[in-house]
From TrEMBL:
Gene3D superfamilies: 3.40.50.2300. This is ABC transporter substrate-binding protein. Residues 1-19 form the signal peptide. The keyword Protein biosynthesis does not apply. Keywords: Signal. Pfam families: ABC_sub_bind.
Length: 334
């Protein structure tokens, strides 16, 4: 074999070796891109309370080191459309999201159904996750789903009703038939209120379009209205308030954003905190924590929120202790 042929063969072998190494070991930037996790966040509808949960989720993830180029966020908003929930959940599955986060029960249910026990699903502000079938129990979720629940402090809400509207006897409670959390809260409040001596009437809406008619009927039959933590009712809160104001009927809602929309007062659990804790839990699952054995975290600590503008409009003098509590640690809307 002459020297020229030997040199040619050696050059070919060297070239093939380099090509093999290059294709077998991608460059560092490509490898880094492959390790950036995608987080799918699915929100049921645009609403201040749910928006606060979303904001908290991002902050919670950031607190654990997941922000900027270290994470890819795919945020989808279904705008209360069931078909959108299904399509968006499938989108996350198709892009092989590392985990998904559901804001509101319908969003979480859609994600869990699509994941079918595989990729982790984090709950963000879901009422009664065990009753919804999302987890086996709050302490032992048992599958690929865990997260946070923001159960309403119903006994404290009842106390707000008793203090703010002491002469009320007939209590109307309204909820959305398709919202498991809303129904859960409404019926549990009904039991508490009946035990406290109220004449309780339950009213339902199927969609936000029903609110005007149902509210008009309710306002003619009750002394005070309780609006539970319910996505449909929250979305139609301004319609409800327009009707109840005309009839001088106060509304005691479940969260601060609903007070800002015209509710009289409440003890409100921070929706931001609910999202923040969900973000932290999502980060820990990304780092290897098993959602099946990661207990659902319940956020129950709430603060007083009063709407003095609404009280003046209705001719109601709120107790000084409620106003002071809101001024000290809470919020006063003027």
């Amino acid at each position: 074999m002459n020297k020229r042929l030997l040199a040619t063969i050696t050059a070919i072998v060297a070239f093939l070796a380099v090509a093999f190494v290059t294709t077998s070991h991608p460059n560092s930037s490509a490898k880094k891109a492959d390790t950036v996790p995608t987080i799918g966040i699915l929100q049921l509808v645009t609403h201040p309370a749910l928006d606060e949960i979303h904001r908290g989720i991002l902050a919670g993830l950031k607190s654990q080191g997941y922000s900027g180029q270290k994470i890819k966020i795919d945020y989808q908003n279904a705008q209360a459309n069931q078909a959108n929930l299904k399509t968006m959940s499938q989108k996350f599955a198709n892009e092989n999201a590392a985990l998904t986060i559901g804001i509101a029960t319908p969003a979480a249910l859609s994600l869990a159904k699509t994941a079918n026990g595989d990729n982790p699903v984090i709950l963000a502000g879901i009422t009664d996750p065990a009753g919804s079938g999302l987890v086996k129990t709050a302490q032992h979720p048992g599958n690929n789903v865990t997260g946070t629940t923001g159960d309403s402090p119903l006994s404290q809400h009842l106390s707000v009703i008793q203090q703010a509207v002491p002469h009320a006897k007939k209590l109307g409670i309204i909820y959305t038939t398709s919202d498991h959390g809303g129904e859960y809260n409404a019926k549990n409040m009904a039991k508490l209120a009946q035990a406290a001596g109220y004449d309780v009437k339950l009213y339902t809406i199927s969609t936000t379009n029903d609110m005007q008619q149902v509210a008009e009927t309710m306002a003619s039959q009750v002394d005070v209205v309780y609006a539970p933590q319910d996505n449909g009712v929250a979305s139609a809160m301004k319609t409800l308030i327009n009707v109840t104001n005309q009839n001088k009927i106060p509304v005691i809602p479940a969260v601060d954003t609903m007070v800002k929309d015209g509710g009289l007062a409440t003890i409100s659990v921070s929706q931001y905190d609910i999202g923040y804790q969900a973000g932290i839990m999502a980060a820990k699952v990304l780092k290897g924590k098993d959602p099946a054995t990661y207990p659902v975290k319940t956020i129950t600590q709430g603060d007083m929120v009063v709407n003095l503008k609404q009280a003046q409009l209705l001719g109601i003098q709120l107790p000084d202790n409620m106003i002071k509590a809101a001024e000290t640690k809470g919020e006063v809307i003027k």
